[in-house]
Amino acid sequence: MEFSKILLDEISYYLKNGNESISTAESVTSGFLQLALSQMSDAEKIYKGGITAYTIEQKVKHLNIDHNEAKEVNCVSRHISEDMAKNVALMFDTEWSLATTGYATPVEESNHEVFAFYCIAYRGTIIRSDRIELHPMTKALEAQKYFMEYILNCLSCEVKRNFEHIDF
Question: Inter-axis angle of helices 5-17 and 140-163, to 10 degrees?
Fold first, then answer.
């Protein structure tokens, strides 16, 4: 799999020069964000790690997601992604964090839709949280790749915006 070198270099540049780090909590993207971030230049200095938690039980156990809320929404909601982002930052002690949850295939639980909720958090504050929707005929792997690329582009924008006032 190929990643946008320009995009990853941009993220790496700002995080490294800002002396900040990032972590991820993934479900629908199944580790694609972790793989992408590991490809950044100087990744060992800025990418502290991530977790892929697919089931409600694992999200509750490792990411401190509320079990009742998770059960009610099949662990797929904007709020769940926000909690995942905040809690993975605590787990890995990072300034930045990403989280995803959703459906890469159209199943009954998703009303036969393909979508993801994602969250970008900075120092415990949600700075971007949204839903990405794709056509229900999108193949699962293509959906996961699209979600990853979309989220990395959003991350790049947020990281640049955060550091635009700093002259490196």
Answer: 40
Spatial distance between the Cα atoms of 115 and 35, rounded to a whole number of angstroms: 21
Number of domains in the chain: 1
Give me the domain span that covers residue 22. Answer: 5-163
Exposed/middle/buried for 1, CB within 10 Å: 0-12, 13-18, 19+?
exposed
Do the domain assignments include residue 168? Answer: no
120 lies in a domain? yes
Residue (of 15, 4, 5) closest to 168 by Cα position: 15
Give the model confidence (pLDDT) of 128-139 as tens digits: 999 999 999 999
pTM more than 0.85 = yes
Residue 63 maps to which CATH number?
3.90.950.20
Contact 46, 9 (CB under 8 A): no
Residue with tokens 């959003």: 154
